[in-house]
């Protein structure tokens, strides 16, 4: 479960998140949609503390952090919180000096202190799961974008996070490679992995989401089931956004 | 004609006689001096680079000050201060250790800038990916950033290594009988400076060519995992 209450983020004078409240129950997949600059990436980055929120509360599993002006997190607190989240990046961000397998092993050994054998066993199983069992020893530059992103998902999964965060996982991909990545995410949703996904793929959102969240200008304008948002919304801003996306 | 032939024979004789003594001085002093100071300089450089990239104000200032001093003054002057200057504080160093210290301090300053630039050249996304799997800053530095930086540092560090081979000739000024000093000694007794110094140049050329070859090998090895 992940609960966000009254979350604010300022960059200097610019308020990018203006009091976000969200509840994502365990095992559910939430999809965040919204126009460019609405704060979607910033929200995800706040959830794994790549950005430190200015104010508000984040609860994740049994951990809870409250932020305000006087909050000074130690690096131990930050790291312990981050271990509960996995992040999948738009640009994959695989480690280029390590093979696919080593990318997935690294965190298990360095952070989770597993033995090499344990870590490798898990890494191989995850590669199999994302359909790359035969690519274990390839370096990132030898893989297609879709394959790299699937390794990215496996790397995040290897840490056994409470929640997986995806920031536009397919927007850097050629159209014909999008499907293979979305399939992996759908499978994870079916297995009741808790996921928060920022995407511009509306059909995918409709299919995979338990909850759709529409953000604009730093606020959550509307949230609900896919049919509530995509078919039955009465909200003018949501309608406007969906129409604009449909035109493309 | 006859006297010309005699002169050529004499020069060839001198060159042959002096080749191995000069080469030996190179193997005995130039090469060890180069390798020792390069390795020590690299360790020092890494520490200085990490200090400059840290978030501790005092460390940053100290590192900057250090680099400022050693990059802003001539190496020859640094060597002289160490060898001829320190005795007035009661610190007397033998020529070879003095040379090692001077070159290390100097190389450390230059190489730290190379290392710092390489670390800064690694995209922010690599740090974030490391953080996202729960690494601390120092784990990310050690496991993700530095291994990738090494590849970036190899060409400039290789160049600085080869220029160090040649810079060690400055140790002659504090009586280390390295390659150049040996050449000087022989030139002054044979009165054939032109030919002896050409021979000296040739031996330096052999050293730097061999080292360039290893540098290339090393660069190739570290190119794995990187798209061309
Ligand atoms: N590090 C930063 N410093 C200053 N401003 C920032 C920073 N990061 C984001 N912003 C600003 O915050 C706002 C929201 O950015 P964010 O990247 O979260 O939007 P987004 O919804 O993800 O947009 P997109 O769909 O284009 O990815 C933008 O106005 C952006 O310029
Ligand atoms: Mg974004």
TrEMBL record, chain A:
<keyword id="KW-1003">Cell membrane</keyword>
<keyword id="KW-0067">ATP-binding</keyword>
<dbReference type="GO" id="GO:0005524">
    <property type="term" value="F:ATP binding"/>
</dbReference>
<dbReference type="Pfam" id="PF00005">
    <property type="entry name" value="ABC_tran"/>
</dbReference>
<protein>
    <submittedName>
        <fullName>Amino acid ABC transporter ATP-binding protein</fullName>
    </submittedName>
</protein>
<dbReference type="InterPro" id="IPR030679">
    <property type="entry name" value="ABC_ATPase_HisP-typ"/>
</dbReference>
<keyword id="KW-0813">Transport</keyword>
<dbReference type="InterPro" id="IPR003593">
    <property type="entry name" value="AAA+_ATPase"/>
</dbReference>
<dbReference type="GO" id="GO:0016887">
    <property type="term" value="F:ATP hydrolysis activity"/>
</dbReference>
<keyword id="KW-0472">Membrane</keyword>
<dbReference type="GO" id="GO:0005886">
    <property type="term" value="C:plasma membrane"/>
</dbReference>
<feature type="domain" description="ABC transporter">
    <location>
        <begin position="2"/>
        <end position="242"/>
    </location>
</feature>
<keyword id="KW-0547">Nucleotide-binding</keyword>
<dbReference type="InterPro" id="IPR050086">
    <property type="entry name" value="MetN_ABC_transporter-like"/>
</dbReference>
<dbReference type="InterPro" id="IPR017871">
    <property type="entry name" value="ABC_transporter-like_CS"/>
</dbReference>
<dbReference type="InterPro" id="IPR003439">
    <property type="entry name" value="ABC_transporter-like_ATP-bd"/>
</dbReference>
<dbReference type="InterPro" id="IPR027417">
    <property type="entry name" value="P-loop_NTPase"/>
</dbReference>
<dbReference type="GO" id="GO:0015424">
    <property type="term" value="F:ABC-type amino acid transporter activity"/>
</dbReference>
TrEMBL record, chain B:
<feature type="domain" description="ABC transmembrane type-1">
    <location>
        <begin position="27"/>
        <end position="215"/>
    </location>
</feature>
<protein>
    <submittedName>
        <fullName>Amino acid ABC transporter permease</fullName>
    </submittedName>
</protein>
<keyword id="KW-1003">Cell membrane</keyword>
<dbReference type="GO" id="GO:0006865">
    <property type="term" value="P:amino acid transport"/>
</dbReference>
<keyword id="KW-0472">Membrane</keyword>
<keyword id="KW-0813">Transport</keyword>
<feature type="transmembrane region" description="Helical">
    <location>
        <begin position="194"/>
        <end position="214"/>
    </location>
</feature>
<dbReference type="Pfam" id="PF00528">
    <property type="entry name" value="BPD_transp_1"/>
</dbReference>
<dbReference type="InterPro" id="IPR000515">
    <property type="entry name" value="MetI-like"/>
</dbReference>
<keyword id="KW-1133">Transmembrane helix</keyword>
<keyword id="KW-0029">Amino-acid transport</keyword>
<dbReference type="GO" id="GO:0022857">
    <property type="term" value="F:transmembrane transporter activity"/>
</dbReference>
<comment type="similarity">
    <text>Belongs to the binding-protein-dependent transport system permease family.</text>
</comment>
<feature type="transmembrane region" description="Helical">
    <location>
        <begin position="65"/>
        <end position="86"/>
    </location>
</feature>
<dbReference type="InterPro" id="IPR043429">
    <property type="entry name" value="ArtM/GltK/GlnP/TcyL/YhdX-like"/>
</dbReference>
<dbReference type="InterPro" id="IPR035906">
    <property type="entry name" value="MetI-like_sf"/>
</dbReference>
<feature type="transmembrane region" description="Helical">
    <location>
        <begin position="29"/>
        <end position="53"/>
    </location>
</feature>
<dbReference type="GO" id="GO:0043190">
    <property type="term" value="C:ATP-binding cassette (ABC) transporter complex"/>
</dbReference>
<keyword id="KW-0812">Transmembrane</keyword>
<dbReference type="InterPro" id="IPR010065">
    <property type="entry name" value="AA_ABC_transptr_permease_3TM"/>
</dbReference>
């Amino acid at each position: 479960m992940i609960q966000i209450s009254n979350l604010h983020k300022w960059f200097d004078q610019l308020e990018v998140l203006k009091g976000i409240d969200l509840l994502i129950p365990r095992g559910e997949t939430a999809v965040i949609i919204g126009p460019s600059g609405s704060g979607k990436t910033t929200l995800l980055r706040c959830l794994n503390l790549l950005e430190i929120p200015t104010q508000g509360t984040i609860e994740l599993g049994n951990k809870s952090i409250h932020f305000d002006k006087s909050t000074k997190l130690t690096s131990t607190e930050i790291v312990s919180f981050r271990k509960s989240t996995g992040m999948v990046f738009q640009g994959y961000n695989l480690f280029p000096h390590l093979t696919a397998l080593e990318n997935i092993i690294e965190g298990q050994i360095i952070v989770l202190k597993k033995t090499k054998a344990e870590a490798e066993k898990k890494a191989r199983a995850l590669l199999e799961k994302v359909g790359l069992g035969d690519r274990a020893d390839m370096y990132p530059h030898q893989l297609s974008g879709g394959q790299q992103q699937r390794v990215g998902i496996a790397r995040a999964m290897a840490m056994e996070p409470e929640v997986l965060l995806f920031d536009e996982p397919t927007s850097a991909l050629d159209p014909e490679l999008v499907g293979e990545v979305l399939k992996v995410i759908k499978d994870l949703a079916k297995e009741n992995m808790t996921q928060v996904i920022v995407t511009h793929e509306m059909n995918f959102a409709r299919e995979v989401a338990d909850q759709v969240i529409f953000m604009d200008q730093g606020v959550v304008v509307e949230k609900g089931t896919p049919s509530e948002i995509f078919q039955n919304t009465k909200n003018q801003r949501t309608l406007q956004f969906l129409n604009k996306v449909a035109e493309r | 004609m006859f006297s010309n032939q005699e002169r050529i024979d004499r020069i060839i004789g001198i060159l042959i006689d002096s080749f191995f003594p000069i080469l030996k001085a190179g193997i005995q002093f130039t090469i060890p001096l180069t390798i020792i100071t390069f390795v020590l300089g690299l360790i020092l450089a890494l520490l200085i680079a990490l200090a400059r990239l840290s978030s501790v104000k005092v460390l940053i200032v100290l590192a900057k000050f250090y680099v400022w001093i050693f990059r802003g003054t001539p190496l020859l002057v640094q060597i002289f201060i160490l060898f001829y200057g320190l005795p007035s504080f009661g610190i007397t160093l033998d020529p070879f250790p003095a040379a090692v210290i001077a070159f290390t301090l100097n190389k450390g300053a230059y190489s730290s800038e190379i290392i710092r630039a390489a670390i800064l050249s690694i995209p922010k996304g690599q740090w974030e990916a490391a953080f996202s799997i729960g690494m601390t800053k120092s784990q990310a530095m050690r496991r993700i950033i530095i291994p990738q930086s090494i590849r970036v540092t190899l060409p400039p560090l290789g160049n600085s290594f080869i220029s160090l081979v040649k810079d060690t000739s400055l140790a002659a000024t504090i009586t280390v009988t390295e390659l150049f000093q040996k050449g000087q000694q022989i030139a002054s007794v044979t009165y054939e400076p032109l030919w002896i110094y050409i021979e000296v140049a040739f031996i330096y050329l052999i050293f730097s060519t061999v080292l360039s070859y290893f540098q290339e090998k090393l660069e190739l090895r570290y190119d794995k995992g990187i798209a061309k």
